[in-house]
């Protein structure tokens, strides 16, 4: 259904959100549709994919998007069919995945998600533009992203990334809270590795603006024991803490992080600043095993990310970077073994 008059001259881009009837998407779709992600002058067509039983719920989401009367939103297409959802995409945000149920082995969770992300990778390969930018959010996000990328051989591996911006934002806020400053005064935080409890939030290259002057996180916080202990575990366990409190996983904050991640891909990062993003590890300068989707510090220009090179890594950091890499290698090997099944 056409939703607005042709008030913008730019060609609409086609943006897919999967798991579109879920709670993350409910927090996400308004921000995308009103121009917070792809630009205030960029019209768009939203494609909303979910499983067949969720289609009635999805109709309600469509009604609400219509009722927002947003000028950039040209069309909303709810569907349960991949050939419709993935056609000619400019951007794909893959939120939907099989959640872990009580008593479920991690291996079973991986197997279910390999099936989902293999089919979505194949659909990207077959129907989407070769320039499509793909962000995987559904957990286990790094390995799901790798499976999707492997299943879409005609799309460059560099076009795939997974979300660790939520962890990045969590880490920035913890430092800001500790220093009594605003979150945007904390720059160049790094999340290394897996979007799991083995991730490593690294403050060694972080700049904190205190009273107009950039200082290191160590100088700003003045509590090395906290930075090397409780700070790391708080960020690693934050998702579980939210679930314990809300009885639901992070949605509002996940949606905000998705917006930050995709906006940075679309519009680029500021000179001298970098952010965390799960990207393809092959050829990386930090000795991380090849053929993983691993979170690195990246800068972005012309919709192309580049791993920030030349950052000194001490022994403390190296051990934590290696531990999260080992988990990802194990996850990848298990997941790849299911690909042929």
Automatic annotation (TrEMBL):
Catalytic residue positions: 195
Domain Lactate/malate dehydrogenase N-terminal: 14-160
E.C. number(s) listed in UniProt: 1.1.1.37
Keywords: NAD, Oxidoreductase, Tricarboxylic acid cycle
EC class: oxidoreductase
Entry protein name: Malate dehydrogenase
Domain of life: Eukaryota
Gene3D superfamilies membership: Lactate dehydrogenase/glycoside hydrolase, family 4, C-terminal, NAD(P)-binding Rossmann-like Domain
């Amino acid at each position: 259904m056409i939703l607005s008059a042709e008030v913008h001259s730019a060609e609409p881009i086609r943006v897919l959100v999967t798991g579109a009837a879920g709670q993350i998407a409910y927090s996400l779709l308004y921000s995308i549709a009103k121009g917070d992600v792809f630009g205030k002058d960029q019209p768009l067509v939203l494609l909303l994919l979910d499983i067949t039983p969720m289609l009635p719920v999805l109709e309600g989401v469509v009604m609400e998007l219509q009722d927002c009367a947003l000028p950039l939103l040209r069309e909303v297409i709810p569907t349960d069919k991949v050939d419709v959802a993935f056609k000619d995409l400019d951007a794909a945000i893959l939120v939907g995945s099989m959640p872990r149920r009580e008593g479920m082995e991690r291996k079973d969770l991986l197997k279910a998600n390999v099936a989902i992300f293999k089919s979505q990778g194949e659909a990207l390969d077959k129907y989407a533009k070769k320039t499509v930018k793909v962000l995987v959010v559904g957990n286990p996000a790094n390995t799901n992203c790798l499976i999707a990328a492997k299943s879409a051989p005609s799309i460059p591996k560099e076009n795939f990334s997974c979300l660790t911006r939520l962890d990045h934002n969590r880490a920035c806020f913890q430092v800001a809270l500790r220093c009594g400053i605003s979150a945007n005064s904390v720059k160049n935080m790094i999340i290394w590795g897996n979007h799991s409890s083995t991730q490593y939030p690294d403050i060694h290259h972080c700049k904190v603006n205190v009273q107009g002057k950039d200082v290191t996180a160590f100088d700003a916080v003045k509590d090395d024991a906290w930075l090397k202990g409780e700070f790391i575990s708080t960020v690693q366990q934050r998702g579980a803490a939210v679930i314990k409190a809300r009885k639901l996983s992070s949605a509002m904050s996940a949606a905000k992080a998705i917006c930050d991640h995709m906006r940075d891909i679309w519009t680029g990062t500021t000179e001298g600043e970098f952010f965390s993003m799960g990207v393809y590890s092959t050829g990386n300068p930090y000795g991380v095993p090849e053929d993983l989707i691993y979170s690195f510090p990246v800068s972005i220009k012309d919709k192309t990310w580049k791993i920030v090179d030349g950052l000194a890594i001490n022994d403390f950091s190296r051990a934590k970077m290696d531990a999260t890499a080992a988990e990802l290698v194990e996850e990848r090997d298990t997941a790849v073994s299911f690909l042929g099944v």
